[in-house]
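Milestone 3.1: sequence recovery, worked example.
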């Protein structure tokens, strides 16, 4: 059986795996709040929501260069977040991370 620390590490990683993974991590972190998991939930939720909203508008462009740039940008940010979660670090994703921490500050309080 895993101890709580291992479970929290896994929840921080799961937060980045689809929006449903973010929701799973959020609900599993509600009873005993872990600051690392809460941090990564805020980062992942911000990335997923922004990706969906911007993806809707980017889809209107009929350009593979714009679409590819959009996807590469978000893939790099998600990979950065996942590596932070694996390393048990609270590194904000570049450019958008501080905004997500402020916007979703009530999550994990």
């Amino acid at each position: 059986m895993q101890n709580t620390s291992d479970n929290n590490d896994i929840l921080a990683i799961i937060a980045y795996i689809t929006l449903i993974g973010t929701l799973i991590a959020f609900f599993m972190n509600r009873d005993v709040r872990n600051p690392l998991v809460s941090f990564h939930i805020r980062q992942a939720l911000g990335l997923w929501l922004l990706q969906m909203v911007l993806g809707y508008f980017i889809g209107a462009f009929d350009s593979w260069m714009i679409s590819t740039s959009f996807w590469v940008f978000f893939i790099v940010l998600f990979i950065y977040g996942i590596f932070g979660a694996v390393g048990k670090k609270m590194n904000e994703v570049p450019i958008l991370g501080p905004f997500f921490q402020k916007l979703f500050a009530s999550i994990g309080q």
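The first helix runs from residue 4 to 14. The CA atoms of residues 46 and 100 lie 5 Å apart.
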